[in-house]
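Exercise 7. Given the encoded structure of a 162-residue chain, write a plausible sequence.
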């Protein structure tokens, strides 16, 4: 519930054009930089997004790198970054709060081994009005299940050397 209130507040501030939104976004976990020259990123985003049957513009992908990877994601044991969940502070490899930007930890791994496809699935759900207003943070929808859309996207990326 806290995450939803924060998301709605941030959306209001963002669309109202307030310059104070960036520190608030970073406080909850949306962080990173648009590194458009990251090897294979554009191709990976395009592959995943079209694989999800999306024809709209994909979200901005903010990469969290280097010294900003301050913790270890307990689920994957890979480098991650601090986020604020409804349950409190946590460490994650990826984070989606709103439908126009995702944050993904990047430490040189192939995109198929990153949280990219996972976070893009959250955005697809948000934009489709599925899951919850936050795109199924509990990962109960089919796309997050074994063999679902996220696994299929990562398999395609792996075959393509991404």
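Solution.
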């Amino acid at each position: 519930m806290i995450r939803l209130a924060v998301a709605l507040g941030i959306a209001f501030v963002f669309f109202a054009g307030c310059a104070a939104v960036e520190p608030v976004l970073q406080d909850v976990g949306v962080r990173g930089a648009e590194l458009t020259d990251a090897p294979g990123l554009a191709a990976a985003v395009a592959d995943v997004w079209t694989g999800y049957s999306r024809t709209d513009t994909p979200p901005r992908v903010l990469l969290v790198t280097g010294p900003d990877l301050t913790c270890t994601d307990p689920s994957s044991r890979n480098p991650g970054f601090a986020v604020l969940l409804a349950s409190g502070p946590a460490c994650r490899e990826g984070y989606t709060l709103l439908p126009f930007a995702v944050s993904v930890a990047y430490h040189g791994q192939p995109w198929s081994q990153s949280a990219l496809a996972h976070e893009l699935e959250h955005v697809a759900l948000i934009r489709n009005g599925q899951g919850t207003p936050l795109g199924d943070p509990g990962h109960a929808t089919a796309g997050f299940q074994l063999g679902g859309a996220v696994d299929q996207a990562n398999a395609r990326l792996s075959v393509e050397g991404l």
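Remark. The first helix runs from residue 2 to 16. Students should compare their own answers with the one above.
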